[in-house]
UniProtKB/TrEMBL annotation, chain A:
The keyword Transmembrane helix applies. This is L-glutamine ABC transporter membrane protein /L-glutamate ABC transporter membrane protein /L-aspartate ABC transporter membrane protein /L-asparagine ABC transporter membrane protein. The chain crosses the membrane at residues 41-66, 114-134, 154-176, 188-212, 232-255, 262-291, 303-323, 360-385, 405-425. GO terms for molecular function: transmembrane transporter activity.
TrEMBL record, chain B:
NCBIfam families: HEQRo_perm_3TM (TIGR01726). The keyword Cell membrane applies. GO terms for molecular function: transmembrane transporter activity. It is a multi-pass membrane protein. It comes from the Bacteria. InterPro entries: AA_ABC_transptr_permease_3TM, ArtM/GltK/GlnP/TcyL/YhdX-like, MetI-like, MetI-like_sf. GO terms for cellular component: ATP-binding cassette (ABC) transporter complex. It comes from Rhodovulum visakhapatnamense. Its main location: membrane. Residues 92-406 form the ABC transmembrane type-1 domain. It holds the Pfam family BPD_transp_1. This is L-glutamine ABC transporter membrane protein /L-glutamate ABC transporter membrane protein /L-aspartate ABC transporter membrane protein /L-asparagine ABC transporter membrane protein. The chain crosses the membrane at residues 23-44, 87-113, 134-152, 199-223, 244-267, 287-309, 358-376, 388-409. It is found in: Cell inner membrane; Cell membrane.
Length: 438, 418
């Protein structure tokens, strides 16, 4: 065939041309520019507008950030220093306020000689969380995770060592009851006893027991009252507790909402919708004003504890909805397969349903976590000194009256770092747990 | 039917309540119900006991007493001699006002940002990512106080507009004034007004507004009819009659006629003394709250919109193109109807979040229902229980109304599988 062609046509190329390099406008930096920034007139205009916007914002902010004062003792002094250094027209940030107050923004009015306690506490909490978050770490560290919930509050609030011990004893009692009663009287009764015994212990005996032990062997550290808590320490305390507690409660609520038991379902639906229907701030009003009314006369428990309770309930309701979404997204065959294997309800949930449902709902769970942590700023409205509340009290100081951007910028940056790293962690987790083909 | 005489008749024994799965669920439920009722009874009896000890039993009578405080931004007539109930109602209207304004702006911003984040322009896409991450990862309360600070610190005071050598000037042909106390925009006035319609003697609604809305509604209805007729013609003949000018005319002309008949004109704000008079005055607190809530929620809406568009598989638009549809018809007939089904439910829950977040108005002093009923009224009367309960009920009612709307929409657009 090719032979005929070669003879019949005037000219047919029968040798391959050497490959030319692609045109300069479609490779390298120039090609990238053309493709990504100036592919059409509209895109070119958008690019120029974006560049103008970026330039405008940076031109306004960068000099302000860097033409700054770090060493002044008051706002007026700050302005004088900046004018002296950069000319009379210059206006810059007064980072001196951060330098002077950053310890307070982080620890509140916590006694400065005891700063090691919250630092050690949060280090312990982190060490306790690490084996849960990253499966690559040694499993022995899980003992730390078990100890952290009792040790960290004790480090933060101080007081006798016997109180966390006797609270922990409640869990031990529950576990022991489960191990002893369940073989004797069946799983359900075992679960009921294991649930009831610790509650009775905590309400009736734990307090006197701790007091008694404290009289026998007075071991303890200096107590710190909740009024001294503030800054990011307060946010993290509230946020971390609410986050840690909301997951199990949320799982239970979601299971309740999905269950066949009508009354249980009605209670769970009512609770979830009630909590989700009202803003957090009304729940914080409940915490600060009403929760003491709901308790037996004479009870007056700690404001931070009350806030933690309400924030936890709030987070649990949202968590329940996220997990319900995961449960609903699970194919029905999984439930049926678990039944077919002869697993009972709790085993099916624990071994088959929950691992998959939780995996599906990771993005939702983490964004709920982020939301809860951000929402801890609302406690400033009921008068607690979280970073936002604390920034108001710094501005009430004569020296720093009128300072705005530096404080808000610092607080916003801190929150951004926390929340952004949480969202990145959720992406890591999603990638790690993905089991379908990649 | 065969019978099995050797199968023993089952008799009910007490232990079956626990070990027989048929009865166990009933047992669990009864126990749960009893426990729940005991808990509620315990809380209620504690509360009654505590309130009795303090000498203030539950009583909603305080609502009719004079409020004795001013509200600086109101939609309806209000003086400090009005009752607490009316103050709460003013607050509720303010909540709804900022919620509606916020939802509208957040939707527009969110859709634009969500679409731009998918842009093929590298710079624009990155810029929008920065926007989304920046707003999503910083608490909304911080944004609210931040926007308030921007308004107060950067806008000129009203007296900067005064005199020959004024340092500030009004925008848009002397019609809009941005000051550090608030924004003044022109107000609609009617020289041949129809008057007001009292509703339950509580507040007045302008009849002019009702008349204009009625005419507009009728116009939209007729326009929809014309469109339906065009659809029928297209189905029958394959050719779609051009109707856009007819539909535009049906909507616009009657409204314009109505406006002229009512003598519509704008009342411009003017500087008198130390402050502006006339026009619609929106306080800084309202503007800051509105902008902060909108910008914050827009970041979430952008993600929802982006997710919705990405959720539609590429095959859909390719199939539509293969059918010979033009790009804008592909968007409106194929992509959008499917994307909306994904977008709308989370979008509405964002509206819900925005409405609930508007309760943070208290941080900048905007008098929404949290500021009136849950703020000053509660502090003045000392009726915490009643006020907080009412506050929660109001928000619950708003939330339930919005979720009912969402459920209605969900059932309407649900895919009916065959």
């Amino acid at each position: 065939m090719s032979g005929t062609h070669a003879h019949s046509a005037a000219f047919v190329r029968d040798a391959m041309l050497p490959q030319e390099p692609p045109p300069a406008t479609s490779v390298g930096a120039l090609g990238w520019l053309r493709q990504n920034l100036f592919s059409s007139w509209l895109n070119a205009i958008l690019t120029v507008l974006s560049l103008a916007l970026i330039g405008y914002v940076l031109a306004a902010i960068l000099p302000w950030i860097f033409q700054s004062s770090w060493s002044a003792g008051s706002l007026a002094e700050c302005r004088d220093q900046i004018k002296a250094a950069y000319g009379s027209e210059a206006s810059g940030a007064c980072w001196a306020v951060i330098r002077e107050r950053w310890l307070q923004l982080i620890f509140g009015f916590y006694p400065s000689e005891l700063y090691w306690r919250p630092i050690l506490g949060f280090a312990l909490a982190l060490a306790g969380m690490a084996p849960v978050l990253f499966t690559g770490l040694p499993r022995k560290m899980l003992y730390l995770s078990l100890a952290a919930p009792f040790v960290v509050p004790w480090l933060l609030w101080g007081g006798t060592v016997w109180l966390p011990v006797s609270v922990a004893l409640g869990f031990v009692l529950g576990y022991a009851a489960q191990r002893i009663v369940a073989p004797l009287a069946g799983g359900l009764l075992g679960a009921v006893v294991a649930g009831l015994l610790p509650v009775l212990w905590w309400f009736l005996l734990a307090g006197p027991f701790a007091t008694l032990l404290h009289q026998i062997g007075p071991l303890g550290i200096e107590p710190v009252s909740s009024r001294n808590f503030g800054g990011f320490m307060l946010s993290i305390t509230i946020g971390l507790t609410a986050i840690a507690l909301s997951l199990p409660i949320g799982v239970l609520l979601a299971l309740g909402r999905q269950s066949d038991l009508f009354i249980l379902r009605a209670i769970c639906v009512g609770f979830i919708e009630l909590i989700r229907g009202v803003p957090l701030i009304t729940l914080l009003f409940v915490a600060s004003l009403l929760l003491n009314y709901f308790m037996p006369p004479g009870t007056n428990f700690d404001i931070i504890l009350r806030v933690i309770i309400m924030v936890t309930l709030f987070a649990s309701a949202y968590m329940a909805e996220v997990i319900r979404g995961g449960l609903a997204a699970l194919p029905k065959g999984q439930y049926e397969a678990a039944d077919a294997l002869g697993l009972d309800y709790w085993k099916a949930q624990r071994l088959v349903v929950m691992p998959q449902a939780l995996k599906i709902s990771i993005p939702g769970i983490v964004s709920t976590f982020i939301g809860v942590f951000k929402d801890t700023t609302l406690v400033s409205i009921i008068g607690l000194l979280d970073p936002v509340g604390f920034s108001n009290s710094i501005r009430a100081d004569v020296n720093w009256n009128g300072i705005v951007w530096e404080l808000y910028g610092f607080i916003a940056l801190m929150f951004f770092v926390f929340c952004f790293s949480m969202s990145r962690y959720s992406m890591y987790l999603e990638r790690k747990l993905r089991t379908e083909h990649r | 039917m065969t019978s099995y005489p050797d199968v023993p008749r089952e008799t009910f024994r007490l232990r079956m309540l626990i070990f027989d799965t048929r009865y166990r669920s009933l047992t669990i439920q009864v126990v749960a119900l009893i426990a729940f009722m005991l808990l509620v009874a315990w809380i209620v009896s504690n509360t009654v006991q505590n309130l009795a000890n303090m000498g203030k039993p539950i009583d909603f009578g305080f609502l009719t007493g004079a409020a004795q405080y001013d509200i600086n931004q109101t939609l309806i007539e209000y003086t400090n001699r009005d009752s607490h109930l009316r103050a709460a109602f003013v607050g509720l209207l303010n909540t709804l006002l900022v919620a509606v304004l916020g939802c509208a702006l957040a939707t527009v911003l969110g859709v634009v940002i969500g679409v731009l984040r998918l842009s093929r322009n590298w710079l624009v896409a990155r810029l929008m990512t920065v926007y989304v991450e920046m707003f999503r990862n910083v608490p909304v309360l911080l944004w609210i106080v931040f926007f308030m600070a921007i308004l107060i610190e950067t806008l000129p005071p009203p007296n900067a507009f005064r005199g020959e050598d004024a340092t500030a000037s009004m925008l848009l042909g002397d019609s809009v004034a941005l000051t550090n106390r608030g924004v003044y925009v022109p107000e609609p006035l009617f020289s041949r007004s129809l008057g007001d319609l009292p509703v339950f003697g509580a507040f007045n609604i302008s009849l002019d507004l009702i008349a204009i809305l009625a005419v507009l509604g009728a116009g939209l209805f007729v326009s929809a009819k014309i469109r339906a007729r065009a659809d029928r013609v297209q189905n029958a003949t394959g050719l779609r009659p051009t109707t856009w000018y007819l539909r535009l005319g049906v909507v616009a002309v009657p409204v314009l006629v109505m406006l002229v008949a009512l003598g519509f004109h704008l009342g411009y704000p003017e500087l008198k003394g130390f402050n502006f008079r006339g026009g619609v005055y929106m306080r800084n607190s309202l503007i800051a709250l509105w902008l902060a809530l909108s910008f914050y929620t827009a970041a979430f809406i952008a993600e929802i919109v982006r997710g919705g568009i990405l959720a539609i598989s590429k095959g859909q638009s390719e199939a539509a193109a293969a059918l010979g549809l033009r790009p804008n018809r592909i968007m409106s007939l194929v992509i959008l109807p499917q994307a909306l089904r994904v977008i709308i439910p989370p979008l509405i829950s964002q509206y819900l979040n925005l409405t609930k977040n508007s309760s943070l108005a208290i941080a900048v002093g905007y008098m929404d229902i949290t500021g009136t009923l849950g703020g000053i009224t509660m502090n003045q009367t000392g009726r915490e229980l009643e006020c907080v309960l009412m506050l929660m009920l109001v928000y619950l009612a708003i939330s339930l109304a919005i979720s009912m709307g969402m459920n209605w929409y969900n059932t309407r657009v649900r895919l009916v599988e065959r």
